[in-house]
Structures
1.
Amino acid sequence: MAMKTEARAVVIGGGVVGVSSLYHLARKGWSDVVLLERKELTSGSTWHAAGLLPLFNMSYSVGQIHRYSVRFYQELQAETGMNVGFSQVTNIRLARTRDRWDEYMYYAGVAETLGIPLNVLTPRQIKEIWPLCETDGLLGAIQHPDDGYIQPADLTQALAKGARDRGAAIYRNTAVAAIRQTEDGRWLVTTDKGDITAEHVVSATGPDHARIFECTVHHGGVELARGSGRSKKAAESEAALNALAKLRAEQAVAKAGAPSTNP
Ligand SMILES: Cc1cc2nc3c(=O)[nH]c(=O)nc-3n(C[C@H](O)[C@H](O)[C@H](O)COP(=O)(O)OP(=O)(O)OC[C@H]3O[C@@H](n4cnc5c(N)ncnc54)[C@H](O)[C@@H]3O)c2cc1C
């Protein structure tokens, strides 16, 4: 299937973050969205994740995402008919020192504010839930009854199905080589399978984000390179883009039948 040449948004990276971004854009009504993955979906760090869903959190915003996720995974299974391997087995954290206990009470405060269920357990209650636990010397524990784990690869595939069902397109084995802003403010994304122009680009390339950042060449020649200097790869990428632009300009002139002004 030939790749689209235009989309409202292009998401780069087919890990759980990229596919989830695609799914949620499509769910918001943006059906003209595309995901580009250089290999196969989940071939990055998503493949290695244990998939634990720790609701223990010091951050209100991350806590909100966790709470949303626990509810959403069940909805997604019902919507797509795909099992994401979600097991709610609860999560218990043991405290042996006063400092650890203080930390847990901070978690408890965040959970309470967010409305996330949390139990404070005595050593005896820990033993009732987990008879094999050695409770001597423990001060107690906190428990999130809704906690558990998912299968990250299965979750990603379910998100992909949900996104495709809403009109999104996913192109696997398609590597992004460069991103350049066009005169009209959109983004030209160059891949090894052709170009695609989009109003918005989402980089969800995980550990490769720095490389994607490096190959982003802003219109007007300002390069958004991370680090102290430009990498060889970024310079090569820009040179390749310039050569491509020159070739296209020459082809356009030749097609119009006008003499080329290039030396
Ligand atoms: C051993 C391990 C255990 C973990 N356990 C947990 C856990 O229990 N719970 C938890 O929440 N998190 C866990 N994590 C973290 C979790 O795996 C990551 O936070 C998550 O997978 C990141 O997803 P991502 O989509 O951002 O990145 P990735 O899964 O790495 O996806 C990035 C994708 O971008 C693609 N890509 C890169 N460059 C390009 C390009 N130029 N063009 C096109 N595509 C490109 C890659 O091929 C890749 O598929 C764990 C991680 C590891 C390594």
Note: The mean pLDDT is 87.
2.
Amino acid sequence: MLSGGFFLCFCCLDCESLLHNKYVFAGVSIPFFHKDRLHNQEDYLLGCIKGKSFKKTCPKDYPTKHNPTNQNSNICPSYFRWIHEDLKPWKEKGITKDMLEKAKKTANFKLVIVKGKVYVEKYRKSIQTRDFFTLWGILQILRLYPGKLPDLELMFDCEDKPVVPLDKFHGPNAKPPPLFRYCSDQWSLDIVFPDWSFWGWAETNIKPWENTLKDIKEGNKKTNWKDRVPYAYWKGNPYVSPTRQNLLQCNVTLENDWNTLLYIQDWVQESNQGYKKSSLGDQCTHRYKIYIEGWAWSVSEKYILACDSMTLFVRSNYHDFFIRGMVPLQHYWPIRDNSKCTSLKFAVEWGNNHTHKAQEIGEAGSKFIQEDLDMNNVYNYMFHLLNEYAKLLMFKPTIPRGAVEFCPEKLLSCTNGNKRMFMEESMVKVPSDSNPCTIPPPYDPLSLQEFLERKANSTKQVEIWEDEYWQIKEGAIV
Ligand SMILES: *[C@@H]1O[C@H](CO)[C@@H](O)[C@H](O)[C@H]1NC(C)=O
Ligand SMILES: *[C@@H]1O[C@H](CO)[C@@H](O)[C@H](O)[C@H]1NC(C)=O
Ligand SMILES: *[C@@H]1O[C@H](CO)[C@@H](O)[C@H](O)[C@H]1NC(C)=O
């Protein structure tokens, strides 16, 4: 859900009141910017390309070899198998220069890696500092695994919604443009990549993932599961999408107790109060936490799932890179999107009747996030995705004329404030002492189908329980 703010802003400029003077990105609202201010907002990446700091040169003595002492290598988490699925459209015929150039249509920048050095050709301004932090993240893999990334060229689009429709590019002669972005859906071929928030979301003061995760783990210790409020909890900006506005109906009232507590995030107020109330480590106080997408996927997903509370996952359209590996009833509880209140009420009541089970699901979801999605695995995912992608290129990557070489030193030298703080905090300090984990093989079509069927079955099972519950309840009323 993240997102989308950009569109939102333009179409909603005259309905400011609807937005409560806030902009929402990725499901989190940030103070509303006037259109002019938006355009005048500093473009960090361009500033870095054109600014004074451009004079800052990248060091020549970067390590180019990686010789870890630990030669063992584990198998990566199973969601890494989706890397093969995402790249499948190019598996047979590869990626030509022409296909890559077609992806330029919406891309914010082209990234080129040649001999371990990173070059960027910038095409258009991104929302906030998304492009800047994404580039920062990519530079960190080169520090973690020096000399290991192959030469490549790729197009990156920092907007929210996928734009490469599957139905336009299928069949044996299809030449889909390979385009990287933060989320996709089942009707699109966009290639999913970790979003910027793993290195911090400066505009909402959300710290880099590694430390946020530590805060949440600490927060989890503060309240035992059983002592948590036995309600479903959600806090966010409802004005990014109709489905979130629809959720608001489920809040507890004197007439209807849907077992659900909903709160509207007010970033203006929180920003004025120094974000004291939005600390993510302090938000693990309820037994059940609701995840609901917004304009597209939501950055909030990993924070919600990490809480040890059972996540009530409202059926969603968009996926980021890790959620496809998670399974309903194992890692989260599925919630209908077309009858949210009845679904939520049942889920909470079920959980309060089966506390051990509910706690187990909550903890399994959090374990997935804390282990399979720790920063090391985020880097591993990026590494393997880029590596597999590079194998498909049918041309020799070359440094584009006019492209600018980037290194962490250069990016650091053109930032200040919490941006700089987050970058220093999330910088990879030393190369990894082991090799990247080993990527699991692709799913064979049968086992993929089985996996998807198992997920669908679990969801179906919950819906059957739910229907039975409501039938009996309604029968009793009559
Ligand atoms: C939902 O209900 C709670 C408890 O009555 C209240 O504090 C909260 O403001 C309500 N949320 C919304 C969005 O109205
Ligand atoms: C929870 O337990 C109560 C009391 O046994 C029962 O009436 C209710 O139907 C149960 N609800 C669910 C969802 O399991
Ligand atoms: C899903 O449910 C159907 C019908 O109940 C069953 O035949 C099938 O074996 C299940 N599939 C999996 C993978 O569990």
Note: The chain has 16 helices and 15 strands.
